Predict the structure.
Amino acid sequence: MGIALRSRRPDESALVASLRAGDERAFMHLVEEYTPGMRRLALTYVRTPALADEVVQEAWLGVLKGLDRFEGRSSLRTWIYTIVANVARTRAVREARSVPFSSLAPADAGDDEAAVDPDRFVAEGHWSRPIEPWRRVVDAEARGVIDAAIARLPPLQAQVIELRDIEGWSSEEVRNVLNISETNQRVLLHRARSKVRAALEEYLNDDG
Amino acid sequence: MADLTCKELVELVTDYLEGSLSRRDRKRFEKHIDGCTNCREYVAQFRETIRLTGTLREQDISREAADELLRVFAAWKHGEA
């Protein structure tokens, strides 16, 4: 998906020219390529699928209106996703104001968050009990567990793992879209992956 | 140079996989997993987690959403957006 388009990067100026000229097919190609991922990203900012759909639509309008300003310094997808992130952030802030019990600002990169529950180690830092191999499951079954685990992550961690491990982006692209440092990106990614692994462990070690 | 403990190692797995550990720390990491079955299994599970996460498929865009975006596009094209 995204990776294929990236390798076609040299053609992007032609694609942008087609869009500027009002080529509907070029637009729909782009829409089909990016909308699903844009929607997933939007869902890490806003609460409901309906809101995510609104964010995506507003972002596409932003893309069209901003086309003349796109200079090709970043890839088209980085530019598009940056617009999504900005629209979604604005929307999330607005929603937070209207939701009293907002949990919008949980720790994203607090220092005390361990990759593995400290109870799993003895005082000397060795495992307190063995790491059990996982039972085999079909990927589809594991996907449900992963999806639920990602939905429970603090927003920035969810955003980083979405872009890095689901979309398969480079750390540089992710940093640019989310406007975070390289170190922060790696810390967030590690926490997200560690929690997803823990969720899989809980599920895959349960022999019941 | 002190050996890594298991508790320390689990904090370094992403750095290791990203190739962002120093040469020295990379060697400590590899020395540890050579001798520790549990951590070897842990790193294998971590890699499997990344692989499985990569198989998450996004829902295709719905017909209605695509139609709506086409209307947005047409309006923009005609200078109404």
